[in-house]
Amino acid sequence: MAARRTTPMAGDLFGEDAPPPNFDAAMSASARPAPNQPLADRLRPNRLEDVVGQGHLLGPDGSLTRMLERGSLASLILWGGPGVGKTTIARLLAQAAGLKFVQLSAVFSGVADLKKAFENARRQAEAGGGTLLFVDEIHRFNRAQQDGFLPVVEDGTIVLVGATTENPSFALNSALLSRCQVMVLNRLDDSAMEALLVRAEEETGRPLPLTEEGRATLRAMADGDGRYLLNMVEQLLSLKTEQALDAQALARLLAKRAVLYDRDREEHYNLISALHKSLRGSDPDAALYWFARMLEGGEDPRYLARRLTRFAAEDVGMADPHALPLAIAAWETYERLGSPEGELALAQLVVHLATASKSNAVYKAYGAVRRAATATGSLMPPAHILNAPTRLMQDIGYGKGYEYDHDAEEGFSGQNYFPDGMKRQTFYNPTGRGYEREVRHRLETWARLRDRRQS
């Protein structure tokens, strides 16, 4: 690894502007805050250890700390939400590794920009230096553009650090992923947000005009985004008030950060998975929470109605046969009433499904019987259960020996209904929960009768 820079370099925990052409000079000048410099910009960390909320990467035993100690900075993908320090970490990694920092944004850059960056990096390497190329929102590059990084990463022309808010497993191609280490950045927790508030008060020399409740509300309103938190702090400090604001007063003055939810991205699948598993785990409170999170994020209630109906069939099943018709009724109620009134019917369905007895016996039976149907091909039903509407069909034995179950003792004949060339199999194994307890008892009784009558 190249020697450390002696020139102090300011990171960029919250700002994501590309560095100016004369980057080293700009870093020296950055120690002198501009008159109207935003608070988030003034609070940029100058050292990796000053970055908050990412101790698993930057603490004494952090992954990036150990990598720097070994003197071998690998190409990285930094995956995390907005305002958690991706750009900051990339800049400070370049400083710690003694690499020239070059920044591109996949939103504004194209193939020509990449080629220019690669060529400059080659010249830097020939002069004995190295380049850390930081690509913000790298997931926005298409597959061909992502492939363009492969040769320069492989031959060491650049150390690539890509930042993304999307799951790299889906957003980046496997060839690029195989050449990079994925580092997951945590959403800033409450203690990290409080640390930023303390830094803001020290920087400005003014306490925030908030009660303890208001202070907690401010942290919650930022929803894990440090940049957004400091922007709200700046608004608060501009107020001409001596009165401490409580939660309600704060909510009237400041806009809450929009919920991070995209109906066609990973957050959608994360939340529906959480809802589904909370229902399966019989936790109505957690299930209602995830249900509400999806609705507040803008999810289509019809999508939720469809998933809840599927759950009624898949995870409740015969343990509570009323669950499926209730799901359809809740869905129809929503269609008749619309939002927001119809959402209450779906909420009632959520509670019913969470508190219902659970069984996936029918779901498992259906999967097993599909495999059996594929394996056995076109075996005919046994002749005695075939209808014989013509003389020919009667002559060849269709319907011969069929026993009418209603006329049999206990309404059960015990005849074989599987194909003649197939042994009897048990696909449906009811649990002892809910209504399936009664179903299981019936099946056990019929099995004993069948064995007695067929022996």
What is the structural class? mainly alpha
What is the number of beta strands? 5
Which overall shape is indicated by the principal axes computed on the Cα atoms? elongated
Strand-and-helix sequence, N→C?
Answer: HHHHEHEHEHHEHHEHHHHHHHHHHHH
Number of helices: 22
Estimate the strand proportion: 5-15%
| Mean pLDDT over all positions | 86
Query: What share of residues is helical?
Result: 40-55%
Low-confidence stretches: 1-32
Could you give the distance between the termini?
Answer: 82 Å
Estimated radius of gyration: 32 Å
Can you list the strand order of the major beta sheet?
2-3-4-1-5
Q: How many strands, what sense, and barrel or not for the largest sheet?
A: 5 strands, parallel
Characterise the protein shown here.
The protein has a 5-stranded parallel sheet, sandwiched between helices. The chain has helices at 23-29, 39-42, 55-58, 63-70, 86-97, 111-126, 143-147, 150-154, 168-171, 174-177, 190-204, 212-222, 226-237, 247-253, 266-280, 284-296, 301-316, 323-337, 341-355, 361-376, 391-395, 436-454; strands at 76-79, 100-105, 131-136, 159-164, 181-184. The protein is elongated, with a radius of gyration of 32 Å. Helix 12 (212-222) packs across helix 14. Residues 1-32 have low confidence and may be disordered. With 455 residues, the protein is mostly helical.
Give a quick precis of the structure:
The chain has 455 residues and is mainly alpha-helical. It is 50% helix and 6% strand. The chain contains 22 helices and 5 strands.
